[in-house]
Design goal:
By secondary structure, the chain is an alpha/beta fold. Helices cover 41% and strands 20% of the residues. The protein has helices at 13-23, 60-67, 70-73, 86-95, 105-113, 164-175, 190-198, 211-216, 228-232, 245-250, 252-271, 273-284, 288-293, 305-317, 327-330, and strands spanning 2-5, 47-54, 76-83, 100-103, 118-126, 135-140, 155-158, 184-187, 204-208, 222-226, 237-244, 298-299. A seven-stranded mixed β-sheet has the order 1-3-2-4-11-5-12, sandwiched between helices. A five-stranded mixed β-sheet has the order 8-7-9-6-10, sandwiched between helices. α6 links the parallel β7 and β8. It is found in: Periplasm.
């Protein structure tokens, strides 16, 4: 199910004024700081771009960029569409209803193996390579589960099967000397995970924020077994931005505008945690006290192609994709 939300340009009148000045002398092909409007030399038109987002905390950075006028400063009239899940965005991007999507790279790799012309065009959000990560496997403290291999023969809940949760847990169990094939995975939505764990309907649950912070606040009931991303592929991207081959190959100026505006937006969100938090509150509906305490992904538009290569190999190894896609095509230059 997809809900359409048109992002208006409220609060960016001043930025629009700056845009008009910059557009008159900018290059439509981008490449220079600040970007420029597309639509022909000497025009002041903004380039319309539609992006699909999930209503989760890191995706709010795009909304932050809209609110701050950053996309307009880079010559973009941005429309945001919100979706229930990453998979729901893929058809819209593939058919051109959306120019770009922000979602899990594993979904993009899976689509590419199904002959859907999807391209990863930039980084977006990344798991933390060390310290307290942004998702974890949580157990009941009373059970004394202490290592990844202890999950052998147990039931582990993830929000969906054959996604990043069970992929990284499989790898973590194997690296710890356990047998991942003996782990039974069940699907439990994130909001229900901790209650179902406490009720005994799972032996462990894979949860992100803000549910992870909820578990950490009650150590007598819940224990963090570990961070599977760090065990399996430290720093793995949790979301990338992606587009269709039609946009990547046929509209390079639009692609360049998007990349420049996104990079500026993510940098600005990183530098303004207070403002970013306020946008997360309005974008997701989470209370301010919850947003204040949650851990957040590392945001950057930069992307090391090697981490996608490693993720693709891991997905093929565990049968999440039948074969690896042509990454020279999928990872847009």
């Amino acid at each position: 199910m997809i809900t359409r939300t048109r992002i208006t340009t409220v609060g960016v009148i001043a930025a629009a004024g700056l845009l008009l000045a910059s557009c008159s002398s900018g290059s439509p092909s981008g490449g220079s700081e600040g970007g420029a409007a597309e639509g022909g030399a000497g025009t002041e038109e903004l380039t319309p771009i539609t992006v699909g987002l999930l209503t989760i905390a890191p995706a709010a950075a795009v909304q932050y960029g809209v609110d701050q006028g950053i996309f307009e400063e880079h010559g973009i009239d941005l429309t945001v569409e919100t979706a229930q899940g990453g998979a729901a965005m893929l058809p819209s991007v593939s058919t051109g209803a959306y120019d770009f999507g922000v979602g899990n790279p594993l979904s993009v790799l899976t689509a590419a193996t199904q002959d859907i012309d999807m391209r990863i065009v930039s980084g977006y959000s990344f798991s933390l390579e060390e310290g307290d990560d942004i998702n974890a496997v949580v157990t009941r403290t009373e059970d004394g589960i202490e290592s990844w291999s202890d999950l052998e023969g147990l039931t582990v809940a993830t929000n969906a099967i054959k996604t990043q949760g069970d992929l990284t847990i499989n790898e973590a169990v194997e690296l710890d000397g356990g047998d991942p094939s003996s782990v039974e995975y069940v699907e439990i939505p994130f909001p229900d995970a901790l209650p179902q764990l406490e009720a005994g309907n799972a032996d462990a649950v894979w949860i992100p924020e803000p549910f992870l912070s909820q578990a950490l606040a009650d150590p007598d009931t819940y224990s963090v077994l570990g961070y599977p991303n760090q065990a399996a592929l430290p720093g793995v991207p949790t979301m990338v931005t992606f587009s269709s081959g039609a946009v990547v190959d046929g509209e390079p100026e639009k692609l360049e505008l998007w990349r420049e505006a996104l990079a500026a937006t993510l940098d600005a969100a990183n530098e303004d945690r207070e403002g970013y938090n306020a946008t997360i509150e309005s974008f997701t509906g989470m209370p301010a006290e919850v947003v204040e305490g949650i851990g957040l992904e590392r945001l950057t538009a930069d992307l090391d192609p090697q981490v996608i290569t490693d993720l693709s190999a891991m997905a093929a190894k565990w049968g999440f994709i039948e074969s690896e896609p042509d990454l020279d095509v999928v990872i847009a230059p």
